[in-house]
Recover the amino acids of this structure.
């Protein structure tokens, strides 16, 4: 059983910053990829940022230069620092872990990020 626990969501004004974190626990063989997706009401879940074990990162175009993903491999924890937030970033953010050893993806329950004045 693998659990992902997210923290750090909330309400922030446009132009502000917010940090998310996600700690994975349980029987993890290889947390090859950890990252974040978001899903606004009525929309599909979309990738925000990924980082693999080697530190290679992938960002969606709309967050490049504003969001930074990082991870602590020893703790199976991934972080997302979000700067210069705008209302279009409002969504539920989901933590994601792909265990390459088991070929299985895991998701956190989601944390709400609201950007509003």
């Amino acid at each position: 059983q693998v659990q992902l626990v997210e923290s750090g969501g909330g309400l922030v004004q446009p132009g502000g910053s917010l940090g998310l974190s996600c700690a994975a626990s349980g029987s993890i063989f290889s947390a090859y990829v950890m990252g974040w997706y978001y899903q606004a009401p009525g929309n599909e879940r979309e990738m925000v940022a990924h980082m693999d074990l080697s530190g290679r990162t992938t960002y969606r175009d709309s967050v490049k230069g504003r969001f930074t993903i990082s991870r602590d491999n020893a703790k199976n924890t991934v972080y997302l620092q979000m700067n210069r937030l705008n209302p279009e970033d409002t969504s539920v953010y989901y933590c994601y872990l792909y265990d390459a050893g088991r070929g299985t993806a895991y998701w956190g329950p989601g944390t709400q990020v609201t950007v509003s004045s």
